[in-house]
Structure formats: structure tokens, C-alpha cells
Amino acid sequence: MTTVVHRRVLAGAATALFASSVYPVYNPRCTDGAMRLDDDDPIVHATREIAFQTGVTHPENVHVYVSMDGETGGSMGANVFGRGSVCISNAVYRGFHLDENVDDEDEDDLPSKEEAEFILAHECVHLAKNHSLVMSSFVPMAMLSSASLTTKVSNKFLATLLGVGSLVVGGIYLSWWMEYEADHGAASLGHRFHIGGLSTLERTRRRNCMFKQMHPTRWITDEGNYLADTAHPWLTTRIDHLSSHNIDDCHNCAFCSLVSTPFRST
């Protein structure tokens, strides 16, 4: 009886967690003071065109937000729901419009237009591949699997260790796989996106190296990898991934999807 109740409670908790995590994907919004751009903004037009190229079925439903925080961007939504939002930093927005703002005092610190386009493409691939939905679905399923494991292993400490370990390792692997796929898919759109991707990652790596020189810390390696960021692969591996693989073929590495989105190269 206790086991049945335990399973029902666990199933209910997993269902509630799944619903709460999927709702923001179904109804994507950027909060924390982000400002939604007008549909006639050139960067919105560019984002929707890129979204179409990456395989988003309803690019007209993709909205773009600008946040004063952060350095690159993020996305929320899913292709299966036919809607999505892309949130970029103010630096990315200014970098995209750099040709129009030639007198920008911080021009040297801004990403180039190619880098801005790669960041937009990277986030659009996340939307096209339903990555937010996949990650939202992973957590409750992993919880159920971990709980099931504890009922089958007599040593509860070992069972808990295995359950938590599989949840953490599985989550990191899934997150890294999606980031590699988004990098590869964005770079597949054409040479300027490929160059923009390499430049974006290299810029971040150099910035980390400079920060380590000014503020020595063990969390940043000598190569510029930020160890505390477990949601993203190391910058050096992402750079190597884009540098060493045939960008026209998304089947060349273990982290790229076996079911390839028909990216429309330009």
C-alpha cells in the first residue's frame, strides 16, 4: 500500500513539474525587463528569415526581445507549438545595427553583424529543434526513473547516488548535445554564419582569458573555459566542433541530431 501511494505521489509531482515547465514553452515570454521589438525592426525581419531557414514552421510567430543584461541571447518556445521568442542582449542588438551606428563609442566591444546573425541563428535552431520542450520533458522523466531505481536497489545510498548521478550526467549531456546541434545548425546556413560562429566563441574565450588575468580564479581554465557553466560545452570544444567538421552535413559528430533539419543554406 505504501509503495502504491509513494508511486502516485511521485507521479503527481512529476506531472505537476512537467506542466509548470512546459507552460513557458507553450506561451513563451521574455521577462526581467526585456523589451519586445516592433515587427518592423530590421532585426526582427532578419530573425524571422533566419528562423525560416532553420526550419521553424511559423517564423511569423517568432518575437524578439532585447534585454540590458547578458552578453548573447536565449530562446523559449517550440516548433510543435508554432510560437517562440528570442531574447538578445543590448550588445547584440547594437552590433547588428553597427553599420547604422558608426559613431557608437563602444564599437570595439560590440559583436559584428555576422556574430549577431550567428547568435540569432543559434537560438532559432533551438526553436526549430524543440530543445526547450525536450529539456522540460527530460527532468520529470529522469525523476521518475531515479525514483524507480531506488525501489529496485537494496542499498538506498547507492540507489540515491546512482539516481542523482544519472539525472545530473544525463542533463548535462542533453544540454551539451543541444548546444552543439544549435552551433552546427546555425553555421550550416552559410559561410558568413560559420565565420560569425567561430568569431563569437573566440571573442568569449578571449574575454574569459582576460578576466582570469585580472581576477585569478580556478573556475576559468588557462584556455578560457568557464567551468561553472555546465549548461554549455567548453568553448574550446565548441570552437573545435565548428572548425573541424563539414558544416554542410549535420551527421558528422556524436552530438548532432540523427534526424537532420533541412537547413536552407544561403
Automatic annotation (TrEMBL):
Entry keywords, A to Z: Hydrolase, Membrane, Metal-binding, Metalloprotease, Protease, Transmembrane, Transmembrane helix, Zinc
Record GO biological process: proteolysis
Pfam family, any one: Peptidase_M48
Superkingdom of this protein's organism: Eukaryota
Residue span(s) of domain Peptidase M48: 76-244
Record text on cofactor binding: Binds 1 zinc ion per subunit.
Keyword Membrane assigned: yes
Cofactor(s) it depends on: Zn(2+)
GO molecular function, one term: metal ion binding
Membrane-crossing residue ranges in chain numbering: 157-178
Similarity comment: family membership: Belongs to the peptidase M48 family.
Protein's UniProt name: Peptidase M48 domain-containing protein
Originating organism: Aphanomyces astaci (Crayfish plague agent)
